[in-house]
Structure to design on (203 residues):
């Protein structure tokens, strides 16, 4: 293990000392708040945004964990904190089993227009049906990579959540099948180099 992404509570007045303590550990390379279990307006809280702004000086990214219905809030959040590096987790948690929606496509495209935002394509099989096929995943992966480009996408397992609809090895195999047409350099960026750069794993 090269580093950890720590859970955090940016809405708390205690965030500054927490941030200092977490970074002093030498283990924490990023932060996240699971927002899809919270009220939709939490990310609009003034304290939340002010504390996220503190991450800019530390060089540590913030992972966005939001559902498709909340992605417009994600756009507003990243616009409010333009100096912070963001990573959208799980491809924006699309409901793959229900098919692609125009709102998800548009919101992913809008996030991709912000150069300080990255996309993590992680364990999306969990959001497909139990009998998913590779072609069920392909439009979501291709749209994400197509919009963000190979320099701003990272792969993730989302283990153990990914095992809801298959084993980790199945998701790994599906990933390699989905990027078969990519160059060696593109695959290296997606599978390791971008993550190392974004989260400063070589520091």
């Amino acid at each position: 293990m090269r580093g950890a992404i720590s859970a955090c509570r940016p809405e708390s007045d205690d965030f500054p000392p927490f941030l200092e303590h977490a970074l002093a550990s030498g283990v924490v390379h990023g932060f996240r708040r699971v927002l899809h279990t919270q009220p939709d307006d939490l990310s609009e809280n003034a304290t939340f945004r002010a504390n996220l702004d503190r991450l800019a000086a530390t060089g540590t990214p913030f992972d966005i964990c939001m559902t498709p219905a909340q992605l417009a809030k994600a756009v507003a959040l990243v616009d409010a904190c333009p100096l912070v590096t963001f990573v959208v987790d799980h491809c924006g948690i699309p409901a793959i089993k229900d098919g692609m929606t125009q709102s998800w496509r548009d919101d992913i495209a809008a996030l991709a227009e912000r150069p300080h935002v990255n996309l993590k394509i992680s364990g999306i099989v969990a959001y497909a049906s139990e009998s998913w096929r590779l072609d069920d995943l392909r439009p979501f992966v291709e749209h994400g990579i197509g919009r963000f480009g190979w320099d701003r996408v990272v792969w993730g397992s989302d283990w153990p959540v990914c095992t809801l609809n298959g084993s980790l090895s199945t998701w790994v195999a599906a990933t390699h099948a989905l990027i078969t047409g990519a160059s060696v350099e593109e695959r290296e960026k997606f599978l390791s180099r971008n993550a190392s750069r974004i989260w400063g794993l070589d520091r």
Observations:
- The domain at 4-198 is CATH 3.20.20.140 (TIM Barrel).
